[in-house]
Structure formats: C-alpha cells, structure tokens
Amino acid sequence: xxxxxxxxxxxxxxxxxxxxxxxxxxxxxxxxxxxxxxxxxxxxxxxxxxxxxxxxxxxxxxxxxxxxxxxxxxxxxxxxxxxxxxxxxxxxxxxxxxxxxxxxxxxxxxxxxxxxxxxxxxxxxxxxxxxxxxxxxxxxxxxxxxxxxxxxxxxxxxxxxxxxxxxxxxxxxxxxxxxxxxxxxxxxxxxxxxxxxxxxxxxxxxxxxxxxxxxxxxxxxxxxxxxxxxxxxxxxxxxxxxxxxxxxxxxxxxxxxxxxxxxxxxxxxxxxxxxxxxxxxxxxxxxxxxxxxxxxxxxxxxxxxxxxxxxxxxxxxxxxxxxxxxxxxxxxxxxxxxxxxxxxxxxxxxxxxxxxxxxxxxxxxxxxxxxxxxxxxxxxxxxxxxxxxxxxxxxxxxxxxxxxxxxxxxxxxxxxxxxxxxxxxxxxxxxxxxxxxxxxxxxxxxxxxxxxxxxxxxxxxxxxxxxxxxxxxxxxxxxxxxxxxxxxxxxxxxxxxxxxxxxxxxxxxxxxxxxxxxxxxxxxxxxxxxxxxxxxxxxxxxxxxxxxxxxxxxxxxxxxxxxxxxxxxxxxxxxxxxxxxxxxxxxxxx
Length: 590
Known about the structure:
By secondary structure, the protein is of the alpha+beta class. The protein is 53% helix and 7% strand.
C-alpha cells in the first residue's frame, strides 16, 4: 500500500505522505549502515549527552568529581608538558609541593595523558578532560561490542546492548567524572579475549600480544591491571570446579602464554615499577585501604547519576562520588541473576559465582550495611595484607565484576534472540519478542546514566590577573582555607590556569582545623598548641600565602565569618581583601 492510497480519514494530505516517505527512507538508510558504524555513533552520542554539562565550558567541574577531576586535569597537562617541556614522566613536583608525586602509581595515567597531549594543548586541560571522558566511554563500549560480536555472540543486538552495558556501567561512568585512568577500560575486553586465546597454543605470539596490551593498561592504571589479575584468578578457580577436565587440558598452553605475557609486561614496565617501589620518589603502599569497601545495600541501589534518581540524585553509601562502583540497581541485578539461572551452563554458573565472590571482596575487610559496620569480617581481610593488594581499595574490585555481568547479559541476549527466532519461525507474526525487549528495557533504563551534574569553579582576579606572583615567590606555595585536604578543587584549578607556574601546598591541617573551628564556634580562644601545629605544617608545606574564597560551599554550622576568625587566630596575621579573595600573608609570620 502506498501513501496515496491511505484512507482520507487517517491521512492529513500530501504533506503527511511526504513525511512518512522521508521517515521510511531514513529507516531504510539506517538499517543499511554497517552495525559497527551505528553502534559507534550511538556510543559517542550517549557519551556526549552524559558530558554535555562539561564540554562547552572552561570553569565547570563535575559535582561528583571535584578535586579528583581537577587532579586528572593536572595529569593531562603533565602529559602534555612531557612532550613540550621535556618534563619527567614519572615525577610531578608542583601538585604536592615541596613533596613530589609518583605519577605511575598515583593516577598519572601516562598511557592516556601522553596520547591525549595534542588535545590538551589545543583545548586546555579542562575541556580535554571532558572530551577525553567522551572518548573513553565510547571506546570502552565499542571495544566490548567488537569483542562480543566477533567472539562471543552472533546477535547484533546482543553485542550492541552488551557493549553499552560495559561502556556505561555505573563504576565506569562514576570514574569518568574524576579518575579517567580507572574509567578507561577499552583494553579490558581485548585482554580478556587474548587470555582466552591462549588455549589455542602459539604461546609466543599470543603471549606477546597479551603482554603488550597489559603493559599499555599498566601505563593507564596499574591498579586496574592488578584487579584484572585478581578477577581472572577468581574466575578460573571457579570455572575449574565446573569443568576441571577442560582446565587441565588447556593448562599447559595457557600457563605458557601467561609466562610470555608476564615477561613482556614486566620488561616494558620495569622502570616505572622500580620508580614506584624503589626510586627516590617511590610510593609508600604501607597505608592499607582495607576499610574502603562497598556497602552491601549499594548493589541494589541506583547511582546519583542514574535515570532512576535524576535529577535529584545524591551520593549515598559510597566512599565518594566517583566510587559508585557497585550501584547496579535492583532491576538489573535481578535480571542478571535470573539470566544466569536461565542459561544454567558451566560457563554461566562460573561467571555468576565468580561475580558473587568478587562482590563480597569489594565489600572490604568488614561488612557494612547502610553505612553502619556489622562487625562481620569480609573475605578481603584475607587479602588486604598482601604486598600488591595493600594499596588497592576493595571497592575497586567491583570494576572487574562488570566484565562478568557483560558476558552474562550478552549470553542471555544471544539465547533469547535464538528463542525468539525459533518462535517466529514456528508461529509467524508472534509478538512475544516484544516481551523480551520490554524486560531488557525495564532492567537497563533505571540504571542507565543521566548527564553528570556540574558546578562552576571561577578563577578570581587574584589569580587571573597575576596578583598572586607578589605573594608566592619561586620555591614557595599557595594554601587554601580551611587547609583540610577537602574535596574543594579551587587551588588545583587555579594552578592549572597559570599553566602550573603556581605551586600548591601539601599542607593538611584537618585535625587542627576541626579543633580550631569548634573552639571558634563556641567563642573560645584557639589553643596555643593548635596555633603552633598550624604554623609548623604550613611552614613544612612552604606556604607563603593563605587564601580563602568567599563563594565556597560551607559545611553545616559553618560560615565565612567562622573560617575568617579561625584562620586569623591560627596564623596570627590579619588578612587583606585582594582580587576577590581574603589573603593571609604568611611571610610575616616568624
């Protein structure tokens, strides 16, 4: 039937026919495009939509990211300075002056910052961060689509939606708002695929390829490489309980390939690892992160950036805004549990059991429920003391649960596609396929991410006009009130606006400031010991000036007058109003 033959009672004339004809031609053209192009375009558009609040603006920052995003922007600029100024790849001195940051172990993401250096130089670190987040999200989703469509499933829809589940998972989107290194998981699907290819033999060839991928992943985020190794170990142990004969038969080839991959990876990462553990600016992983686990309730809740909570979402039961790694939401979690039961194959059982064990590990050394400790020991307690894992936050283990969930979803979608095709062949015209699509939509849409919430971080004239140079001589630093190591990103953003010419102090007076704030609120004098501790810490941080902006978000019971009085009492210097900020000149302090 043509448009012209439609009954007049259901048509609005020739213009309606033209519109319907154009729509049909558009559908025909889209259906004729290769699936990879359609998938890539969809992933890019989705990532742009998520980051739409950051892309056009210079001074905006993610509410969930704040200082983490500012630090990532700093590391992007550091990567650019490696190429333009010959800066050391392994050390950054300005961000934590006079101490130094080992960029390999402390979020330097050199495997990203150096390739993105042209983008950083062209757009600046802030816009480069937003564009980089878009590229990372889209690339991760497309990598999952590519591997799924060529090596796991034959259904194009299963591969496309599975790619979206992997690329826009709660943990990936959360970290994309601050920690691009942990968000950049576009190599993970290929690493998983190459590990499975080790069963085919050719240990040298397959091991070298796997080693190159692991080395690149290590340069992006060495912690993610550690987590992948942990995830593989848990999965293979569980799978061996399902198919021990298969594991035993392929063990020689797999172990041989892994040995080659380990040699290649360690050879390429030898010097960065030496700087991390033995160099003059080595990291000190003595600080155990065993208590930074996920809340048990978080697995069935929605993240603050999900459609289910938008636009009133808030961070709850998470260590921070970018640590919402486990917020899958109860509809998707229930869907995955039912899907694993429905498939009921050795592989699906192994995937589900491994995911469950890794989720328990992600809960940390002590299980918590709704923010309250239960006192029940978690399995992470057995691993927290191991040398490599001491510096791993257990909540990050949830990031390697994502690949297992993606595989369960893709396998279930593949079987559903086969069942629907068989049903349609048996009963032409059946509509039961829509029931499956409805279940998928109901499971995915609530957890799907919404555009990230942003806020402005303005640059005051004190910084923009260069007035700070009169207060911060070479070799000295700027510190911000309240000097507590808070999430306020202003000092980092200010330093970025000076192209890292301004150094930021590493002074952290959290306990001292808390005591002084309490005394000030009660109208009591600040203790002499707190005054001495504050001055000593500021002196150790080489701070020559202390600055307070007046538009910062205050804590409950806090106000600018309280901070002003408290800071003045601590340092013993009266401030002056300069360039839109209060300034305490510490050079006059003995």
